[in-house]
Design a protein that fits this description.
It is built from three helices and three strands. The chain is mostly helical and 139 residues long. The chain has a domain at 42-138. The chain has a three-stranded mixed beta sheet. Strand 1 and strand 2 (82-86) form a beta hairpin. Helix 1 (44-64) crosses helix 3 (120-138). The longest helix has 21 residues, at 44-64. It is globular, with a radius of gyration of 19 Å. Residues 1-36 are annotated as: Disordered. It holds the Pfam family DUF5319. This is DUF5319 domain-containing protein.
């Protein structure tokens, strides 16, 4: 059976809609006085930093994904644990922060292999090394 053209493009929505939006019995209300619907305004400096981070993330992914790196690990100051973010999850989170001024919670990676994730600092150093090497070869 020929199935050419039967797969349709699904638009990218980084997170599903909130199933409790507008519900006065929303269970998250027990978490305290947090108005998740009120958008936060980012300052110009914060916006510029997020845009820079998104640009850097694209470079890091292009350089490291072909080498088997699945994403970035971040040491969380709040809980003291390492959080593993796949490239697309981190991109979605940063874009949501840029657009909405906040990030919704997300499910952590399931049993991530720490060897497949590197720190932001590692990414920066790796990219700097690649750029330096290319500059030396182009001279």
């Amino acid at each position: 059976m020929d199935r050419t053209g039967t797969v349709r493009v699904v638009p990218h929505d980084p997170l599903p809609p909130d199933p409790f939006a507008g519900d006065p019995e929303d269970p998250s209300m027990a978490l305290g006085d947090q108005d998740f619907e009120q958008e936060q305004q980012l300052g110009d400096e914060e916006r510029a930093e997020l845009l820079s981070d998104l640009a850097d993330l694209a470079v890091y992914q292009a350089l490291l994904e072909p080498r088997g790196i699945r994403g970035i690990v971040v040491d969380c100051a709040d809980c003291g644990e390492a959080h593993y973010h796949d490239w697309e999850l981190l991109r979605s989170s940063l874009e949501q922060l840029l657009n909405d001024g906040r990030m919704r919670p997300h499910e952590p990676a399931y049993e991530p292999n720490p060897g497949h994730y590197v720190s932001w600092e590692y990414c920066r150093g790796f990219a700097d090394g690649v750029i330096e090497t290319e500059d030396q070869h182009s001279r």
